[in-house]
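Let us practice reading a record.
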Amino acid sequence: MFVSPAFAQTGAPGGGDFLTTMLPLVLIFVVFYFLLIRPQQKRMKEQKAKIGAIRAGDRVVTAGGILGKVIKIDGEELIIEIADNVRVRVIRGTVSDVVSKSEPASGDKPEDKGDAKPEGGLGRFFKK
């Protein structure tokens, strides 16, 4: 006959143990955690703190791209002045960024320690 006999191939010897098969998956997860998940959680935490610390006089940008100055805070609502005598009410969660902070009230001023270093060159990266 013209057909050669087919023989069953043997599987991989031993099949490996559980640790060597799971190690690449664990390493991929660790890399994703430190390169993607953790920095994003840190940015979200900073953003939430920044939005939570909004006070009257701050200049903010809304999610729609409207730039304005916070006039009054009423719980979760902010009254923002976007032009002369043009005020809008927005929900605190729709503020996407705080552009500039206002000076704290006279009772809220932190004490000046006098040992502040100028933030030139590498000073801005090595804050206390």
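A brief commentary: Residues 18-52 form the longest helix (35 residues).
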